[in-house]
Amino acid sequence: MSAVPEGAPVHLPSPEVAAYLDMLSAERGAGANTLAAYRRDLDDYLAYLRRVGLPLEEADTHSLRAFVADLETRGLMA
Questions:
Q1: How far apart are CA 60 and CA 21, in angstroms?
Q2: So what's the pLDDT on residue 11?
Q3: Pick from 33, 56, 36: which is nearest to 46 by CA?
Q4: Beta carbons within 10 angstroms of residue 45's beta carbon
Q5: Buried/exposed 48-72: b ≥16 CB within 10 Å, e otherwise
Q6: Greatest CA span in the chain, whole angstroms?
Q7: For the chain, what percentages of helix, strand and coil (3-state, to nearest 5) are there?
Q8: What is the pLDDT along the chain (78 residues), one digit of tens a residue?
Q9: According to the model, what pLDDT value does residue 78 have?
Q10: Please, are residues 68 and 76 in contact by the beta-carbon 8 Å criterion?
């Protein structure tokens, strides 16, 4: 049984996220739940970068800290 409803569009991760998740799976033996959690978090970060108009290539510690602050405003924790 799939967690995605039948007929729902399949969301493919960005190439950067996919490469990182592949590495976690292959080299570190990460399980399905771990990979799913990392994927959600990374997708959320990339969506944040798009909202603030910052390309991934220009992301730095400042943008990561701003993302964490954004999480807190949404009632989430890093």
A1: 20
A2: 63
A3: 56
A4: 19
A5: bbeeeebeeeebeeebeebbeebbe
A6: 41
A7: 65, 0, 35
A8: 334 445 545 566 788 899 999 999 999 999 999 999 999 999 999 999 999 999 999 999 999 999 999 999 998 876
A9: 67
A10: no
Cβ–Cβ < 8 Å for 55, 49: yes
Instruction: Give me the pLDDT at residue 76, please.
Output: 84
**CA-CA distance, 4 to 27, in Å (whole number)?**
27
Task: Quickly count helices (H) and strands (E) in the chain.
Answer: 3, 0
Are the C-beta atoms of 46 and 14 separated by less than 8 Å?
Answer: yes
Residue whose token pair is 């799913």: 36
Q: Which residue has the tokens 């990374």?
A: 42
Length of the chain: 78
User: For residue 13, is it left (φ>0), alpha (ψ between -120 and 50) or beta?
Assistant: beta
